[in-house]
């Protein structure tokens, strides 16, 4: 939500973190599980601006891969969608 999207028109190609939080809260119970939306919003309100804006390096594919490998251990091989990482 906080990253630019080609299909969004006008000035709001990317939502501000606060606007994204408002959207999650508004869609809780319809688009989003209300319990998960509440937990996610409470976490986002305490997260750093870099995280809120999705500029944190952990959002990159390499960042996610490193986090998975750290969790399961260096010796493990993970295959996702037919691709070994």
Describe the structure.
The structure is a single chain. The protein is mostly helical. It has 2 domains: 1-54, no CATH class; 57-85, no CATH class. Helix content is 47%, strand content 5%. A two-stranded antiparallel sheet has the order 1-2. It starts with 16 loop residues before the first helix and ends with a strand.
Main features:
85 residues; mainly alpha; two-stranded antiparallel ribbon; 4 helices; 47% helix; 5% strand
Beginning-to-end CA distance, first to last residue: 27 Å
Q: Provide a count of the helices.
A: 4
Oligomer: single chain
Order of helices and strands: HHHHEE
Query: How many domain modules?
Result: 2
Mean pLDDT value: 76
Helix/strand-derived category reads: mainly alpha
Q: Percent range for helical residues?
A: 40-55%
Number of strands: 2
Low-confidence parts lasting 5 or more residues at pLDDT below 50?
Answer: none
Shape: globular
Radius of gyration: 16 Å
Largest sheet: 2 strands, antiparallel
Spatial arrangement of strands, main beta sheet: 1-2
What portion of the residues fall into strands of 2 or more residues? under 5%
Write the layout of secondary structure elements.
Elements: H1 17-27, H2 34-46, H3 49-52, H4 61-72, E1 79-80, E2 83-84
Antiparallel strand pairs: 1-2
Condensed summary:
The protein has 4 helices and 2 strands; from the N terminus they run H-H-H-H-E-E.
